[in-house]
Design goal:
Blueprint (H helix, E strand, L loop, with lengths): L17 H18 L8 H5 L7 H10 L5 H5 L12 H16 L3 H8 L2 H23 L1 H5 L13 H29 L4 H4 L2 H13 L20 H28 L12 H26 L7 H26 L6 H18 L6 H23 L1
Helix pairs in contact: 1-5, 3-5, 3-16, 7-14, 7-15, 9-15, 9-16, 11-16, 12-13, 13-14, 14-15
Length: 383
């Protein structure tokens, strides 16, 4: 089958319509379905083999079931320059990236954040600068630059000045991601009954928490090159569980504040500080490791726009964890006010961009894993 090659996929900053991407994904999956050499590498290929043809909903589902381990790319005899030009990781990433665009909102932020890595970086700088300007304008320079080391954080930024924007940004992010997840489920042919399948949810959660499909064929992902390694899987574990520990730290701090009437900053050995410190260190190590892997990785199986989204999101997580740890380490110094405002600005930028970038994969891939478990169960039942 000759290639219906889409060279624009490999050009950064160039969009290809989702319909064209799905046509190319259909072509490649048809080749793969005739070969079936890679069926043991991940969930994509067994799910592919359940289909004789590939509709748009099938391809969107398969694209989000792909974890970009690249095992199939390095095993495939039909990758470029072969005339079939099969590059499954690249086309799946291209479909995911375009789907993120269509499901995210508001569209003005989607265009700003997803056009290029430079525009995304400028958007982040703009958010941090805006937070800094708002704090200076409402609290004055003395609160930020007054050198009140060890003072109550809320003497720099009032409690509700932190909580209300955080609640608004969190609500916005959750609303966009939930709406996108529901739309994804509908677009991939999922039913309400399947969505409420507890057994499928539990099995998908086990796969997600264990990052099962970052093990490739069993030896790990092919990062940074054609040699398999578990490093990407372990760095992802550090990022995910570090993020969850930081979330737990914030939740415990809220309990201390509202229930126990204990005002921050808390002692170094208190539960919120210990959880936040351990989580922050895990995030720094995990994100730094992933950035190194991205930098060294083979670009051939990558989709440039998705790679940009990866780098911006991972970089924001790294900046969030780093500024948080610096704030903790220097909270007794004159730099506390500046570090607090910078940290809050970075956190705000992270939450503004969460539903617009790579974080969206958490929702869509989890939904794809649930759908995969539903399919597996129905196949066993039919057999």
């Amino acid at each position: 089958m000759p290639s219906a090659e889409l060279p624009l996929i490999a050009r950064p900053g160039t969009r290809v319509p989702l319909t064209d991407l799905l046509a190319e994904a259909d072509r490649q999956m048809t080749v793969c379905n005739a070969c079936r050499y890679c069926e043991g590498y991940c969930a994509v290929f067994p799910a592919m083999e359940l289909r004789r043809e590939f509709k748009a909903d099938d391809l969107i589902y398969l694209a989000n079931l792909c974890f970009d381990c690249r095992a199939c790319y390095y095993a495939c005899p039909y990758t470029p320059p072969h005339e079939y030009a099969v590059n499954v990781p690249q086309i799946m990433a291209a479909v995911r990236e375009e789907m993120y665009r269509e499901h995210a909102a508001p569209k003005i932020l989607v265009r700003l954040f997803m056009e290029s890595r430079k525009l995304a970086a400028l958007a982040v700088v703009a958010v941090v600068s805006l937070v800094f300007a708002l704090v200076l304008g409402t609290q004055g320079t003395a609160a930020v630059f007054g050198g009140a080391g060890g003072a109550d954080f809320f003497s720099v930024v009032p409690y509700w000045g932190m909580v209300l924007p955080a609640m608004a940004l969190s609500g916005y992010g959750v609303a966009v991601l939930v709406a996108g997840g529901v739309r994804f489920w509908r677009d991939t042919g999922g039913t309400l009954r399947q969505m409420l399948d507890l057994r499928a949810f539990l099995r998908a959660t086990k796969d997600a928490l264990g990052l099962v499909y970052l093990s490739g064929g069993g030896d790990g992902c092919f990062y940074p090159d054609e040699l398999p390694s578990m490093s990407r899987r372990w760095f992802h574990h550090l990022v995910f569980y570090g993020f969850m520990l930081d979330f737990a730290s914030t939740s415990v701090a809220a309990f201390y504040h509202h229930i126990l009437d204990r005002i921050s900053p808390y002692p170094l050995l208190s539960l919120p500080v210990v959880l936040g410190t351990v989580g922050g260190v895990m995030l720094v190590i995990g994100t730094a490791g992933l950035l190194v892997l991205k930098w060294r990785a083979d670009r051939t199986p990558a989709h440039p726009s998705m790679l940009d989204l990866d780098v911006v999101f991972i970089g924001l997580l790294f900046a969030t964890a780093t500024t948080g740890l610096l704030l903790l380490a220097m909270r007794e110094t004159a730099a506390m006010g500046v570090l607090l405002v910078v940290h809050l600005g970075v956190v705000a930028a992270l939450f503004v961009t969460l539903p617009l970038g790579k974080f969206a994969h958490v929702v869509y891939r989890y939904a794809a894993l649930v759908k995969n478990q539903v399919e597996i169960a129905s196949t066993k039942h039919a057999g």
